[in-house]
Design a protein that fits this description.
It is a single chain. By secondary structure, this protein is mainly alpha-helical. The protein is built from 5 helices and 4 strands. Strands 1-2 form a two-stranded antiparallel sheet. The chain has a two-stranded antiparallel ribbon with strand order 3-4. A hairpin with a 6-residue loop joins strand 1 and strand 2. The N and C termini lie far apart (70 Å).
């Protein structure tokens, strides 16, 4: 007696969604508060404390040579009421690293 035929799609055999659909739905569920970027598929988290933006921008400019991990740590310590997760989200929204090699510095994004 020959063995049963192998399924063409393993996810159908398990009775679950396909891999691409499952990954997309779990990604959108995890970041329900963010806006989906249609070009890259990434979600952008919302800034929860906009009243801290002026102090945040000044601190980014003052510590522009630090790495991302270091600047997130410094910002969360310098600005009262700002967690590391919020500092990371705000940093990604407000600033970006420019330059090459050891000359990279944090600069504010245009229009922010």
């Amino acid at each position: 007696m020959p063995p049963p035929a192998a399924p063409t799609n393993a996810f159908e055999a398990l009775g679950t969604k396909s891999g691409a659909t499952a990954a997309t739905s779990s990604n959108t569920n995890n970041n329900a508060s963010g806006d989906a970027d249609t070009k890259t598929g990434k979600t952008q988290a919302q800034i929860t404390k906009p009243e801290l933006l002026p102090a945040f921008k000044k601190a980014v400019i003052a510590n522009q040579k630090l790495s991302k991990m270091a600047i997130v740590e410094v910002l969360s310590v310098q600005i009262d009421g700002l967690t590391k997760a919020e500092a990371k989200v705000m940093l990604e929204y407000v600033a970006e690293r420019r330059g090459a090699g050891r000359a990279k510095v944090w600069e504010l994004k245009d229009g922010r």
